[in-house]
Amino acid sequence: MKYKLLSRLDLPKDLKKLSLKQEEALCREIRGKIIETVSKNGGHLSSNLGAVELTVAIHRVFDSPDDKIVFDVGHQSYAHKLLTGRYRSFDTLRQKGGIAGFTRPSESVHDACVSGHSSNSISVALGIAEAMKLSGDNHHAVAVIGDGALTGGLAFEGLNNAGNSGTNLVIVLNYNEMSISKNIGGIATYLSEMRTQHSYKRLKLGAKKVIGSIPVIGEGLQNMISRSKDSLKERLIHSTMFEDFGFEFIGPIDGHNLEKLEAALRSAKEMNCPVLVQVNTVKGKGYRPAEEQPGEYHGVSVFDIETGDKPASTESFADVFGTELAAYAEKDERIVGITAAMKYGAGLNHFKGALKSRLYDVGIAEEHAVSFAAGLASMGKIPVFSVYSSFLQRSYDELLHDISIPNLHAVIAICNAGIVGGDGETHQGIFDIPFLTTVPNVTVYSPSGYDELKLCLKKALYEDTGLVCLRFPKGEEEKCDIPSSDSYTLVGGGSDTLIVSYGRTAVNAFEASKELGCDMLKLTRIFPLQNDVFDIMKKYRRVFVFEETYRCGSIGEKIKAEIPSAELTSLEGFVPTMTVCEAFDLYGLTKEKIVRKIGEQK
Protein backbone atom coordinates (compact mmCIF):
# COMPACT_ATOMS: atom_id res chain seq x y z
CA MET A 1 0.00 0.00 0.00
CA LYS A 2 1.24 3.49 -0.83
CA TYR A 3 1.02 6.09 1.92
CA LYS A 4 0.77 9.31 -0.08
CA LEU A 5 -0.76 11.42 2.67
CA LEU A 6 1.15 9.97 5.62
CA SER A 7 4.45 10.36 3.79
CA ARG A 8 4.04 14.00 2.73
CA LEU A 9 1.87 15.70 5.35
CA ASP A 10 3.34 17.63 8.27
CA LEU A 11 1.25 16.08 11.01
CA PRO A 12 -0.60 16.98 13.12
CA LYS A 13 -0.40 20.58 11.80
CA ASP A 14 -1.63 19.79 8.26
CA LEU A 15 -4.52 17.69 9.54
CA LYS A 16 -6.76 20.72 10.00
CA LYS A 17 -6.30 21.67 6.31
CA LEU A 18 -7.76 18.45 4.91
CA SER A 19 -11.16 18.02 3.32
CA LEU A 20 -13.50 15.31 4.54
CA LYS A 21 -12.58 13.17 1.54
CA GLN A 22 -8.87 13.57 2.33
CA GLU A 23 -9.51 12.72 5.99
CA GLU A 24 -11.22 9.50 5.00
CA ALA A 25 -8.31 8.64 2.70
CA LEU A 26 -5.90 9.34 5.55
CA CYS A 27 -7.86 6.98 7.82
CA ARG A 28 -7.50 4.23 5.22
CA GLU A 29 -3.74 4.82 5.07
CA ILE A 30 -3.44 4.77 8.86
CA ARG A 31 -5.28 1.45 9.03
CA GLY A 32 -3.08 0.03 6.30
CA LYS A 33 0.11 1.12 8.05
CA ILE A 34 -1.04 -0.29 11.39
CA ILE A 35 -1.98 -3.66 9.86
CA GLU A 36 1.27 -3.85 7.88
CA THR A 37 3.47 -3.02 10.89
CA VAL A 38 1.69 -5.18 13.47
CA SER A 39 1.73 -8.15 11.07
CA LYS A 40 5.55 -8.00 11.23
CA ASN A 41 6.26 -6.71 14.74
CA GLY A 42 3.28 -7.91 16.72
CA GLY A 43 1.29 -5.61 18.96
CA HIS A 44 -2.26 -4.47 19.66
CA LEU A 45 -4.34 -4.61 16.51
CA SER A 46 -8.10 -4.63 17.16
CA SER A 47 -8.10 -1.75 19.62
CA ASN A 48 -6.06 0.47 17.31
CA LEU A 49 -8.11 -0.23 14.19
CA GLY A 50 -11.27 0.70 16.07
CA ALA A 51 -9.95 4.09 17.18
CA VAL A 52 -8.65 5.52 13.88
CA GLU A 53 -11.46 7.99 13.03
CA LEU A 54 -11.77 8.92 16.69
CA THR A 55 -8.07 9.78 16.93
CA VAL A 56 -8.16 11.80 13.71
CA ALA A 57 -11.19 13.74 14.98
CA ILE A 58 -9.53 14.47 18.33
CA HIS A 59 -6.44 15.87 16.62
CA ARG A 60 -8.63 17.92 14.25
CA VAL A 61 -10.56 19.54 17.09
CA PHE A 62 -7.89 19.88 19.76
CA ASP A 63 -4.40 21.35 19.51
CA SER A 64 -1.78 18.87 20.70
CA PRO A 65 0.59 19.30 22.48
CA ASP A 66 -1.00 22.42 24.05
CA ASP A 67 -4.15 20.40 24.60
CA LYS A 68 -3.09 17.20 26.39
CA ILE A 69 -4.41 13.86 25.15
CA VAL A 70 -4.24 11.02 27.68
CA PHE A 71 -4.84 7.54 26.26
CA ASP A 72 -5.96 5.00 28.84
CA VAL A 73 -3.66 1.95 28.68
CA GLY A 74 -2.13 3.50 25.54
CA HIS A 75 -2.59 0.31 23.54
CA GLN A 76 -4.89 2.19 21.15
CA SER A 77 -2.43 5.04 20.47
CA TYR A 78 -0.88 3.80 17.19
CA ALA A 79 -2.96 6.21 15.07
CA HIS A 80 -1.96 8.98 17.48
CA LYS A 81 1.70 8.13 16.92
CA LEU A 82 1.26 8.23 13.13
CA LEU A 83 -0.48 11.61 13.42
CA THR A 84 2.26 13.15 15.57
CA GLY A 85 5.43 12.84 13.51
CA ARG A 86 6.28 9.18 13.98
CA TYR A 87 5.33 7.78 10.58
CA ARG A 88 8.94 7.35 9.42
CA SER A 89 9.93 5.49 12.58
CA PHE A 90 6.72 3.50 12.87
CA ASP A 91 8.36 0.37 11.41
CA THR A 92 10.41 0.17 14.64
CA LEU A 93 7.25 -0.25 16.75
CA ARG A 94 7.90 -2.47 19.80
CA GLN A 95 11.50 -3.10 18.75
CA LYS A 96 14.65 -2.46 20.79
CA GLY A 97 15.52 1.22 20.42
CA GLY A 98 12.29 1.85 18.47
CA ILE A 99 9.01 3.49 19.33
CA ALA A 100 7.01 2.02 22.19
CA GLY A 101 3.73 0.16 21.93
CA PHE A 102 2.26 2.57 24.49
CA THR A 103 2.56 6.32 25.08
CA ARG A 104 5.87 7.70 26.37
CA PRO A 105 6.60 11.42 26.98
CA SER A 106 10.31 10.69 26.38
CA GLU A 107 9.34 9.69 22.85
CA SER A 108 7.20 12.70 21.89
CA VAL A 109 5.84 15.93 23.35
CA HIS A 110 2.44 14.75 22.09
CA ASP A 111 2.45 11.87 24.61
CA ALA A 112 1.08 13.45 27.77
CA CYS A 113 2.02 10.64 30.15
CA VAL A 114 3.45 7.14 30.48
CA SER A 115 0.67 4.66 29.89
CA GLY A 116 0.50 0.88 29.85
CA HIS A 117 -1.93 -0.10 32.58
CA SER A 118 -5.65 0.49 32.70
CA SER A 119 -8.11 2.94 34.27
CA ASN A 120 -5.78 5.81 35.25
CA SER A 121 -6.53 8.24 32.39
CA ILE A 122 -9.32 10.21 34.08
CA SER A 123 -7.26 10.84 37.21
CA VAL A 124 -4.17 11.84 35.21
CA ALA A 125 -6.14 14.07 32.84
CA LEU A 126 -7.92 15.72 35.79
CA GLY A 127 -4.56 16.50 37.37
CA ILE A 128 -3.41 18.07 34.10
CA ALA A 129 -6.64 20.07 33.76
CA GLU A 130 -6.41 21.30 37.35
CA ALA A 131 -2.82 22.40 36.78
CA MET A 132 -3.93 24.29 33.67
CA LYS A 133 -6.70 26.00 35.64
CA LEU A 134 -4.29 27.02 38.39
CA SER A 135 -1.92 28.47 35.77
CA GLY A 136 -4.61 30.36 33.89
CA ASP A 137 -4.17 28.11 30.87
CA ASN A 138 -7.44 27.65 28.93
CA HIS A 139 -6.37 24.57 27.01
CA HIS A 140 -8.06 21.22 27.48
CA ALA A 141 -7.12 17.81 28.84
CA VAL A 142 -8.69 14.94 26.92
CA ALA A 143 -8.91 11.44 28.42
CA VAL A 144 -9.62 8.61 25.96
CA ILE A 145 -10.88 5.58 27.87
CA GLY A 146 -12.51 2.35 26.71
CA ASP A 147 -15.51 0.73 28.33
CA GLY A 148 -13.23 -2.14 29.40
CA ALA A 149 -11.00 0.24 31.36
CA LEU A 150 -14.11 1.77 32.91
CA THR A 151 -14.61 -1.46 34.87
CA GLY A 152 -11.54 -0.53 36.94
CA GLY A 153 -12.24 1.15 40.27
CA LEU A 154 -9.64 3.86 39.70
CA ALA A 155 -11.71 5.17 36.78
CA PHE A 156 -14.64 5.74 39.13
CA GLU A 157 -12.42 7.48 41.66
CA GLY A 158 -11.44 9.84 38.86
CA LEU A 159 -15.05 10.37 37.74
CA ASN A 160 -16.08 11.10 41.32
CA ASN A 161 -13.55 13.91 41.63
CA ALA A 162 -13.69 15.27 38.08
CA GLY A 163 -17.39 15.90 37.46
CA ASN A 164 -17.74 19.05 39.53
CA SER A 165 -14.13 20.22 39.15
CA GLY A 166 -14.87 23.17 36.87
CA THR A 167 -11.93 22.23 34.65
CA ASN A 168 -11.57 22.02 30.88
CA LEU A 169 -11.70 18.24 30.95
CA VAL A 170 -13.16 16.14 28.14
CA ILE A 171 -13.53 12.40 28.64
CA VAL A 172 -14.05 10.37 25.48
CA LEU A 173 -15.60 7.02 26.33
CA ASN A 174 -14.79 4.63 23.49
CA TYR A 175 -17.47 1.96 23.72
CA ASN A 176 -16.79 -1.27 21.80
CA GLU A 177 -18.01 -3.95 24.22
CA MET A 178 -14.50 -5.36 24.64
CA SER A 179 -11.37 -4.98 26.74
CA ILE A 180 -9.32 -8.12 26.15
CA SER A 181 -11.99 -10.58 27.09
CA LYS A 182 -15.62 -9.54 26.54
CA ASN A 183 -16.72 -7.01 29.14
CA ILE A 184 -18.94 -8.12 31.96
CA GLY A 185 -20.77 -6.60 34.91
CA GLY A 186 -23.18 -3.77 35.58
CA ILE A 187 -21.26 -1.02 33.80
CA ALA A 188 -21.09 -3.09 30.60
CA THR A 189 -24.85 -3.66 30.72
CA TYR A 190 -25.50 0.03 31.40
CA LEU A 191 -23.37 1.22 28.48
CA SER A 192 -24.88 -1.40 26.18
CA GLU A 193 -28.34 -0.04 26.94
CA MET A 194 -27.18 3.53 26.38
CA ARG A 195 -25.77 2.56 23.01
CA THR A 196 -29.29 2.05 21.68
CA GLN A 197 -30.53 5.43 22.93
CA HIS A 198 -29.64 7.46 19.85
CA SER A 199 -32.47 9.91 20.55
CA TYR A 200 -31.29 10.62 24.08
CA LYS A 201 -29.60 13.96 23.47
CA ARG A 202 -32.27 15.19 21.06
CA LEU A 203 -35.03 14.36 23.55
CA LYS A 204 -33.13 15.96 26.41
CA LEU A 205 -32.57 19.21 24.54
CA GLY A 206 -36.20 19.27 23.41
CA ALA A 207 -37.42 18.78 26.95
CA LYS A 208 -35.23 21.61 28.22
CA LYS A 209 -36.61 23.89 25.51
CA VAL A 210 -40.23 23.11 26.38
CA ILE A 211 -39.64 23.60 30.09
CA GLY A 212 -37.79 26.84 29.50
CA SER A 213 -40.65 28.29 27.39
CA ILE A 214 -43.30 28.11 30.17
CA PRO A 215 -44.25 31.71 30.98
CA VAL A 216 -43.36 33.00 34.45
CA ILE A 217 -46.02 34.97 36.33
CA GLY A 218 -44.83 36.45 39.58
CA GLU A 219 -41.95 35.59 41.84
CA GLY A 220 -43.82 32.84 43.68
CA LEU A 221 -44.77 31.07 40.46
CA GLN A 222 -41.20 31.36 39.20
CA ASN A 223 -39.93 29.56 42.31
CA MET A 224 -42.58 26.87 41.91
CA ILE A 225 -41.67 26.26 38.27
CA SER A 226 -37.99 26.26 39.15
CA ARG A 227 -38.69 23.57 41.72
CA SER A 228 -40.87 21.60 39.31
CA LYS A 229 -38.41 21.90 36.44
CA ASP A 230 -36.05 19.24 37.73
CA SER A 231 -39.00 16.99 38.60
CA LEU A 232 -40.50 17.36 35.12
CA LYS A 233 -37.14 16.86 33.49
CA GLU A 234 -36.63 13.70 35.54
CA ARG A 235 -40.01 12.38 34.38
CA LEU A 236 -39.26 13.14 30.72
CA ILE A 237 -35.74 11.81 30.63
CA HIS A 238 -33.69 10.25 33.37
CA SER A 239 -30.17 11.67 33.54
CA THR A 240 -27.21 9.46 32.71
CA MET A 241 -24.90 8.10 35.33
CA PHE A 242 -22.24 10.52 34.07
CA GLU A 243 -24.50 13.53 34.57
CA ASP A 244 -25.09 12.31 38.08
CA PHE A 245 -21.32 12.51 38.52
CA GLY A 246 -21.48 16.16 37.40
CA PHE A 247 -20.53 15.89 33.72
CA GLU A 248 -22.25 17.28 30.68
CA PHE A 249 -22.99 14.29 28.46
CA ILE A 250 -22.89 14.01 24.67
CA GLY A 251 -23.70 10.84 22.82
CA PRO A 252 -23.77 8.12 21.80
CA ILE A 253 -21.90 9.13 18.61
CA ASP A 254 -20.98 6.92 15.64
CA GLY A 255 -17.25 6.50 16.22
CA HIS A 256 -16.52 5.97 12.52
CA ASN A 257 -18.34 9.06 11.21
CA LEU A 258 -15.78 11.85 11.05
CA GLU A 259 -18.32 14.67 10.65
CA LYS A 260 -20.39 13.58 13.67
CA LEU A 261 -17.29 12.95 15.74
CA GLU A 262 -15.82 16.37 15.06
CA ALA A 263 -19.14 18.12 15.72
CA ALA A 264 -19.53 16.35 19.06
CA LEU A 265 -15.95 17.05 20.13
CA ARG A 266 -16.22 20.73 19.14
CA SER A 267 -19.36 21.02 21.25
CA ALA A 268 -17.54 19.44 24.16
CA LYS A 269 -14.58 21.77 23.72
CA GLU A 270 -16.78 24.88 23.64
CA MET A 271 -18.51 24.01 26.90
CA ASN A 272 -15.30 24.66 28.91
CA CYS A 273 -16.41 22.36 31.71
CA PRO A 274 -16.16 18.63 32.42
CA VAL A 275 -17.83 16.82 29.52
CA LEU A 276 -18.14 13.13 28.72
CA VAL A 277 -18.59 12.09 25.09
CA GLN A 278 -19.67 8.51 24.44
CA VAL A 279 -18.40 7.17 21.11
CA ASN A 280 -19.46 3.78 19.75
CA THR A 281 -16.80 1.98 17.70
CA VAL A 282 -16.17 -1.42 16.19
CA LYS A 283 -13.06 -3.13 17.50
CA GLY A 284 -10.91 -4.33 14.58
CA LYS A 285 -12.67 -1.97 12.14
CA GLY A 286 -11.47 -2.26 8.55
CA TYR A 287 -9.75 -5.65 8.81
CA ARG A 288 -12.20 -8.53 8.50
CA PRO A 289 -10.38 -11.14 10.65
CA ALA A 290 -10.03 -8.64 13.49
CA GLU A 291 -13.65 -7.49 13.20
CA GLU A 292 -14.88 -11.08 13.35
CA GLN A 293 -12.58 -12.11 16.21
CA PRO A 294 -11.57 -8.92 18.06
CA GLY A 295 -10.36 -10.81 21.12
CA GLU A 296 -8.08 -13.05 19.05
CA TYR A 297 -6.50 -9.97 17.42
CA HIS A 298 -6.34 -7.80 20.51
CA GLY A 299 -2.69 -8.59 21.08
CA VAL A 300 -0.95 -10.58 18.35
CA SER A 301 2.56 -11.66 17.48
CA VAL A 302 2.84 -11.89 13.70
CA PHE A 303 0.25 -12.85 11.09
CA ASP A 304 -0.38 -13.10 7.34
CA ILE A 305 -2.19 -9.96 6.17
CA GLU A 306 -4.00 -11.66 3.30
CA THR A 307 -5.47 -14.52 5.31
CA GLY A 308 -5.17 -13.34 8.89
CA ASP A 309 -3.46 -16.64 9.71
CA LYS A 310 -1.15 -16.66 12.71
CA PRO A 311 1.61 -19.16 13.49
CA ALA A 312 0.31 -22.31 15.13
CA SER A 313 0.18 -21.73 18.86
CA THR A 314 2.25 -23.95 21.11
CA GLU A 315 1.41 -25.09 24.60
CA SER A 316 2.39 -22.43 27.12
CA PHE A 317 2.91 -22.25 30.87
CA ALA A 318 -0.53 -20.60 31.16
CA ASP A 319 -2.15 -23.41 29.17
CA VAL A 320 -0.56 -26.11 31.30
CA PHE A 321 -1.56 -24.31 34.48
CA GLY A 322 -5.15 -23.78 33.27
CA THR A 323 -5.60 -27.35 32.08
CA GLU A 324 -4.23 -28.78 35.33
CA LEU A 325 -6.33 -26.46 37.49
CA ALA A 326 -9.48 -27.35 35.55
CA ALA A 327 -8.76 -31.04 36.11
CA TYR A 328 -8.55 -30.47 39.86
CA ALA A 329 -11.70 -28.33 39.80
CA GLU A 330 -13.62 -31.14 38.07
CA LYS A 331 -13.02 -33.26 41.17
CA ASP A 332 -13.09 -30.60 43.87
CA GLU A 333 -16.04 -28.21 44.04
CA ARG A 334 -14.18 -25.97 46.47
CA ILE A 335 -11.87 -24.69 43.71
CA VAL A 336 -12.95 -21.36 42.21
CA GLY A 337 -11.19 -19.55 39.33
CA ILE A 338 -10.90 -15.75 39.18
CA THR A 339 -9.63 -13.58 36.32
CA ALA A 340 -9.48 -9.83 35.75
CA ALA A 341 -10.52 -9.62 32.07
CA MET A 342 -7.66 -11.96 31.10
CA LYS A 343 -9.33 -15.36 30.79
CA TYR A 344 -7.32 -16.50 27.78
CA GLY A 345 -3.94 -15.01 28.67
CA ALA A 346 -4.22 -16.32 32.21
CA GLY A 347 -5.15 -19.88 31.21
CA LEU A 348 -8.66 -19.90 32.68
CA ASN A 349 -10.35 -20.46 29.32
CA HIS A 350 -10.01 -24.15 30.24
CA PHE A 351 -12.85 -23.72 32.75
CA LYS A 352 -15.50 -25.05 30.37
CA GLY A 353 -18.92 -26.67 30.63
CA ALA A 354 -20.10 -27.05 34.20
CA LEU A 355 -16.92 -25.38 35.48
CA LYS A 356 -18.00 -22.04 34.02
CA SER A 357 -20.21 -21.49 37.03
CA ARG A 358 -17.06 -21.42 39.16
CA LEU A 359 -15.12 -19.00 36.95
CA TYR A 360 -15.49 -15.32 37.81
CA ASP A 361 -14.32 -12.59 35.45
CA VAL A 362 -14.38 -9.44 37.56
CA GLY A 363 -13.28 -7.05 34.80
CA ILE A 364 -10.19 -4.89 35.07
CA ALA A 365 -10.35 -4.86 38.85
CA GLU A 366 -7.39 -6.65 40.38
CA GLU A 367 -7.87 -5.17 43.85
CA HIS A 368 -11.46 -6.39 43.91
CA ALA A 369 -10.34 -9.81 42.64
CA VAL A 370 -8.04 -10.33 45.64
CA SER A 371 -10.59 -9.12 48.20
CA PHE A 372 -13.23 -11.27 46.47
CA ALA A 373 -10.87 -14.23 46.80
CA ALA A 374 -10.51 -13.44 50.51
CA GLY A 375 -14.27 -13.61 50.95
CA LEU A 376 -14.43 -16.94 49.14
CA ALA A 377 -11.56 -18.34 51.20
CA SER A 378 -13.25 -17.27 54.44
CA MET A 379 -16.17 -19.52 53.49
CA GLY A 380 -14.06 -22.61 52.85
CA LYS A 381 -13.51 -22.27 49.10
CA ILE A 382 -10.07 -22.49 47.45
CA PRO A 383 -9.87 -19.38 45.27
CA VAL A 384 -7.26 -19.26 42.50
CA PHE A 385 -6.72 -15.80 41.03
CA SER A 386 -4.73 -15.96 37.77
CA VAL A 387 -3.22 -12.59 36.83
CA TYR A 388 -0.29 -11.06 34.99
CA SER A 389 2.64 -10.15 37.21
CA SER A 390 2.61 -6.46 36.30
CA PHE A 391 -1.13 -6.20 37.03
CA LEU A 392 -0.87 -7.90 40.42
CA GLN A 393 1.12 -4.85 41.55
CA ARG A 394 -2.16 -3.00 42.10
CA SER A 395 -3.30 -5.54 44.68
CA TYR A 396 -0.51 -5.32 47.23
CA ASP A 397 -2.65 -3.87 50.01
CA GLU A 398 -5.41 -6.44 49.48
CA LEU A 399 -2.88 -9.29 49.59
CA LEU A 400 -1.52 -7.95 52.85
CA HIS A 401 -4.73 -6.80 54.53
CA ASP A 402 -7.45 -9.15 53.28
CA ILE A 403 -5.56 -12.43 52.88
CA SER A 404 -2.33 -12.40 54.87
CA ILE A 405 -3.48 -10.83 58.16
CA PRO A 406 -6.44 -13.22 58.59
CA ASN A 407 -4.18 -16.01 57.25
CA LEU A 408 -6.66 -17.19 54.63
CA HIS A 409 -5.72 -19.84 52.10
CA ALA A 410 -5.75 -18.43 48.56
CA VAL A 411 -3.63 -19.19 45.50
CA ILE A 412 -2.33 -16.47 43.18
CA ALA A 413 -1.16 -17.75 39.79
CA ILE A 414 1.23 -15.11 38.47
CA CYS A 415 1.46 -15.26 34.68
CA ASN A 416 4.01 -13.41 32.54
CA ALA A 417 6.53 -13.35 35.39
CA GLY A 418 9.92 -12.04 34.34
CA ILE A 419 10.82 -10.44 31.01
CA VAL A 420 7.92 -10.26 28.53
CA GLY A 421 9.51 -8.56 25.52
CA GLY A 422 7.89 -5.98 23.25
CA ASP A 423 5.43 -4.44 25.72
CA GLY A 424 8.30 -2.78 27.57
CA GLU A 425 8.66 -1.22 31.00
CA THR A 426 5.03 -1.24 32.05
CA HIS A 427 4.55 -4.96 31.48
CA GLN A 428 7.83 -6.57 32.59
CA GLY A 429 6.99 -8.96 35.43
CA ILE A 430 10.08 -8.22 37.49
CA PHE A 431 8.67 -6.68 40.68
CA ASP A 432 6.45 -9.44 42.07
CA ILE A 433 9.23 -11.15 44.04
CA PRO A 434 10.42 -7.95 45.77
CA PHE A 435 6.93 -6.98 46.94
CA LEU A 436 5.53 -10.45 47.62
CA THR A 437 8.41 -11.41 49.88
CA THR A 438 7.52 -8.52 52.21
CA VAL A 439 4.17 -10.17 52.96
CA PRO A 440 4.30 -12.27 56.16
CA ASN A 441 3.61 -16.01 55.80
CA VAL A 442 3.59 -16.00 52.00
CA THR A 443 4.89 -18.97 50.01
CA VAL A 444 6.28 -18.34 46.52
CA TYR A 445 7.05 -20.97 43.86
CA SER A 446 8.87 -20.34 40.60
CA PRO A 447 8.92 -23.55 38.50
CA SER A 448 11.31 -23.89 35.58
CA GLY A 449 9.15 -26.25 33.48
CA TYR A 450 5.72 -27.81 33.08
CA ASP A 451 6.29 -30.83 35.33
CA GLU A 452 7.42 -28.57 38.15
CA LEU A 453 4.46 -26.29 37.56
CA LYS A 454 2.12 -29.24 38.08
CA LEU A 455 3.92 -30.31 41.26
CA CYS A 456 3.76 -26.80 42.67
CA LEU A 457 0.08 -26.31 41.82
CA LYS A 458 -0.88 -29.48 43.66
CA LYS A 459 1.13 -28.44 46.70
CA ALA A 460 -0.30 -24.90 46.60
CA LEU A 461 -3.86 -26.22 46.51
CA TYR A 462 -3.67 -29.00 49.06
CA GLU A 463 -0.56 -28.87 51.22
CA ASP A 464 0.35 -25.23 51.80
CA THR A 465 -1.61 -22.84 53.97
CA GLY A 466 -2.10 -19.09 53.82
CA LEU A 467 -1.22 -17.04 50.75
CA VAL A 468 0.52 -19.12 48.07
CA CYS A 469 1.91 -17.60 44.88
CA LEU A 470 2.84 -19.65 41.83
CA ARG A 471 4.76 -17.59 39.27
CA PHE A 472 5.65 -18.64 35.73
CA PRO A 473 6.86 -16.89 32.55
CA LYS A 474 5.13 -15.99 29.32
CA GLY A 475 5.34 -18.56 26.51
CA GLU A 476 6.53 -22.13 26.47
CA GLU A 477 9.06 -24.10 28.49
CA GLU A 478 12.62 -24.79 27.45
CA LYS A 479 13.51 -28.44 27.86
CA CYS A 480 16.05 -29.17 30.55
CA ASP A 481 17.56 -32.35 32.00
CA ILE A 482 17.58 -31.09 35.56
CA PRO A 483 15.21 -33.12 37.81
CA SER A 484 11.90 -31.55 38.82
CA SER A 485 11.11 -30.68 42.41
CA ASP A 486 8.61 -28.61 44.40
CA SER A 487 11.42 -27.54 46.75
CA TYR A 488 15.00 -27.51 45.41
CA THR A 489 17.40 -29.69 43.42
CA LEU A 490 21.18 -29.94 43.86
CA VAL A 491 23.08 -31.27 40.85
CA GLY A 492 26.77 -32.18 40.82
CA GLY A 493 29.30 -32.64 43.57
CA GLY A 494 32.97 -32.02 44.09
CA SER A 495 33.20 -28.48 42.70
CA ASP A 496 34.00 -25.51 44.90
CA THR A 497 31.70 -23.30 42.79
CA LEU A 498 27.91 -23.27 43.05
CA ILE A 499 25.44 -21.68 40.63
CA VAL A 500 22.04 -20.83 42.15
CA SER A 501 19.02 -20.01 40.00
CA TYR A 502 15.29 -20.61 39.53
CA GLY A 503 12.49 -20.31 36.97
CA ARG A 504 13.38 -20.36 33.29
CA THR A 505 16.74 -18.69 34.02
CA ALA A 506 17.72 -21.95 35.70
CA VAL A 507 17.74 -23.64 32.28
CA ASN A 508 20.57 -21.40 31.05
CA ALA A 509 22.34 -21.65 34.39
CA PHE A 510 22.22 -25.43 34.30
CA GLU A 511 23.68 -25.56 30.79
CA ALA A 512 26.43 -23.20 31.93
CA SER A 513 27.15 -25.35 35.00
CA LYS A 514 27.67 -28.41 32.78
CA GLU A 515 30.12 -26.53 30.56
CA LEU A 516 32.02 -25.12 33.54
CA GLY A 517 31.92 -28.26 35.68
CA CYS A 518 30.23 -26.31 38.50
CA ASP A 519 27.55 -27.55 40.85
CA MET A 520 24.01 -26.29 40.40
CA LEU A 521 21.32 -25.52 42.99
CA LYS A 522 17.94 -24.98 41.36
CA LEU A 523 15.32 -23.46 43.62
CA THR A 524 11.63 -24.08 43.04
CA ARG A 525 10.15 -22.86 46.29
CA ILE A 526 11.99 -19.57 46.29
CA PHE A 527 10.44 -18.08 49.42
CA PRO A 528 10.77 -18.67 52.25
CA LEU A 529 14.16 -20.25 51.73
CA GLN A 530 14.79 -23.33 53.86
CA ASN A 531 17.67 -23.46 56.32
CA ASP A 532 19.22 -26.46 54.59
CA VAL A 533 19.47 -24.40 51.38
CA PHE A 534 21.76 -21.99 53.20
CA ASP A 535 23.66 -24.89 54.72
CA ILE A 536 24.35 -26.20 51.21
CA MET A 537 25.61 -22.82 49.99
CA LYS A 538 27.94 -22.35 52.92
CA LYS A 539 29.94 -25.41 51.81
CA TYR A 540 31.13 -23.67 48.62
CA ARG A 541 34.00 -21.27 48.15
CA ARG A 542 32.17 -19.36 45.45
CA VAL A 543 28.39 -18.86 45.04
CA PHE A 544 26.83 -17.17 41.99
CA VAL A 545 23.13 -16.29 41.88
CA PHE A 546 21.37 -15.61 38.56
CA GLU A 547 17.76 -14.43 38.55
CA GLU A 548 15.25 -12.73 36.28
CA THR A 549 13.93 -10.17 38.72
CA TYR A 550 14.57 -6.67 40.01
CA ARG A 551 17.65 -6.70 42.25
CA CYS A 552 16.29 -4.68 45.18
CA GLY A 553 14.34 -7.17 47.28
CA SER A 554 15.42 -10.12 45.14
CA ILE A 555 16.06 -13.66 46.31
CA GLY A 556 19.73 -13.01 45.62
CA GLU A 557 19.78 -10.20 48.17
CA LYS A 558 18.28 -12.53 50.76
CA ILE A 559 20.97 -15.09 49.95
CA LYS A 560 23.71 -12.46 50.18
CA ALA A 561 22.50 -11.50 53.65
CA GLU A 562 23.43 -15.04 54.74
CA ILE A 563 26.30 -15.63 52.29
CA PRO A 564 28.08 -12.25 52.01
CA SER A 565 30.51 -13.48 49.35
CA ALA A 566 27.70 -14.48 46.95
CA GLU A 567 27.88 -12.81 43.51
CA LEU A 568 24.52 -11.58 42.20
CA THR A 569 23.31 -11.13 38.63
CA SER A 570 19.82 -9.71 38.32
CA LEU A 571 17.94 -6.79 36.74
CA GLU A 572 18.51 -3.11 37.39
CA GLY A 573 15.89 -0.38 36.93
CA PHE A 574 13.09 -0.60 34.40
CA VAL A 575 13.67 -2.98 31.51
CA PRO A 576 12.91 -1.20 28.21
CA THR A 577 11.33 -2.64 25.09
CA MET A 578 13.35 -5.53 23.67
CA THR A 579 12.96 -9.24 23.06
CA VAL A 580 13.46 -11.72 25.88
CA CYS A 581 16.67 -12.95 24.24
CA GLU A 582 18.01 -9.40 23.94
CA ALA A 583 17.20 -8.70 27.59
CA PHE A 584 18.85 -11.92 28.76
CA ASP A 585 21.97 -11.00 26.82
CA LEU A 586 22.00 -7.41 28.11
CA TYR A 587 21.62 -8.43 31.75
CA GLY A 588 23.99 -11.40 31.67
CA LEU A 589 21.47 -14.24 31.91
CA THR A 590 22.31 -16.21 28.76
CA LYS A 591 24.34 -19.39 29.04
CA GLU A 592 27.27 -17.65 27.33
CA LYS A 593 27.21 -14.65 29.67
CA ILE A 594 26.95 -16.89 32.74
CA VAL A 595 29.96 -18.94 31.57
CA ARG A 596 31.91 -15.76 30.91
CA LYS A 597 31.17 -14.19 34.31
CA ILE A 598 32.10 -17.26 36.31
CA GLY A 599 35.15 -17.96 34.15
CA GLU A 600 36.45 -14.44 34.62
CA GLN A 601 36.17 -14.67 38.42
CA LYS A 602 38.34 -17.76 38.90
Q: What are the main properties of this structure?
A:
Rossmann fold; 3 domains; seven-stranded mixed β-sheet; 24 helices; 40% helix
- Low-pLDDT parts are 194-211, 225-238
The spatial strand order of the largest sheet comes to: 9-8-10-11-13-12-17
So how many helices? 24
Q: How many domains comprise the coordinates?
A: 3
Secondary structure: number of strands: 19
Rg (CA only)? 27 Å
Return the average pLDDT rounded to an integer.
90
Oligomer: single chain
Largest sheet: 7 strands, mixed
For the terminal residues, how far apart are their CA atoms? 57 Å
Name the shape in a single word: globular
Question: Into which percent range does the helicity of residues fall?
Answer: 25-40%
Structural class by SSE content: alpha/beta
Notes on the protein architecture:
This protein is α/β, with parallel strands linked by helices. The protein has 3 domains: 4-300, 3-Layer(aba) Sandwich (Rossmann fold); 317-471, Rossmann fold (3-Layer(aba) Sandwich); 488-600, Rossmann fold (3-Layer(aba) Sandwich), CATH 3.40.50.920. 40% of the residues lie in helices and 16% in strands. The strands form 4 sheets. A 7-stranded mixed sheet has the order 9-8-10-11-13-12-17, sandwiched between helices. A 5-stranded parallel sheet has the order 2-3-4-6-5, sandwiched between helices. Helix 4 (52-61) crosses helix 12 (258-271), helix 15 (366-378) runs parallel beside helix 17 (396-404) and helix 20 crosses helix 24. The longest helix has 22 residues, at 20-41. Residues 194-211 and 225-238 have low confidence and may be disordered.
